[in-house]
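Reading a protein record of the kind used here takes little practice once its layout is understood. The reader may check this reading against the record printed directly beneath this paragraph.
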Amino acid sequence: MPAIRIIFCGTPQFAVPCLKHFLTLKDFEITAVITQPDRPQGRTQEVVFSPVKQVALAAGIAVHQPERIRIPEAEKLLREIAPDAIAIIAFGQIIPARFLDIPRLGWINLHASLLPKYRGAAPIQWAIANGETKTGVTTMRIDAGMDTGEIALQQELSIGATETTPELSERLSAAGAPLMERTLRGLVDGTLKTQAQDHGAATMAPVLKKGDGAVRWTMSAVEVFDRQRAFTPWPGIHTTFRKQIVQLIGAPGSEQRTDLAPGKLVWDGRNLSVACGGGSLFRLEYVKVEGRKQVTAQEFGNGARIAPGERFGEV
């Protein structure tokens, strides 16, 4: 049986386990890798290769980095290679509709949710932020819409009560690698049939904005904690104190204070908590005032000399 010829399209670490998995399969041939252009990162603005590019180069695979995949040169490359399938995972660019018929089996995407829930750029973050206890990975054949294509396979995973976005992302990407293999094998031998999504059940997971990390203290302490887990490492959760923005790290406390309005601070000289919805308390561990270094909650409380009745958030 001839090798399954694929082009691998991806950029971040989330796509790496699948690429590495394909490289172990003797009957899969990765004819090329397409990834985002190298870009400067961090404070030093040093140009860094994408995780996918690093793996591809180490394996001796040709890497292509079009600024925009829709350019004629990229289309020419894809049509010349004429792969059986194009595996696309967190690539970072929209694929033009005219490209969809290039691979005979289609563009097969690994998406980090149980579609049709959490379509969009940040499915892992929004699943955690919304307090979901389960999620998963879906393989699908992409179409001209945003994560609207027909579903091939799905695998459900539980979400840990304290699990953060990076932790869950690592587990989902590991689960996705063998699922992509099963999908491609099933499509090649005709044993797998894709099925349309229930579009009426769709929910969205839009790209994160800094403002998403602003805490509403009417939420319960558990809901605040869910957003902290979801928005790790960025944008984190933040609020205001004396007209300054403060980044927070904490966890739900065990006490209840139904006598306090949401946002009110509870400070005993050692421990610092914030009153949340339903009388719950969010116990702070670390606080970072804008322009300053991160300190413990106790150090912040002592330095700020918190007065009775003070609160976080706008009055």
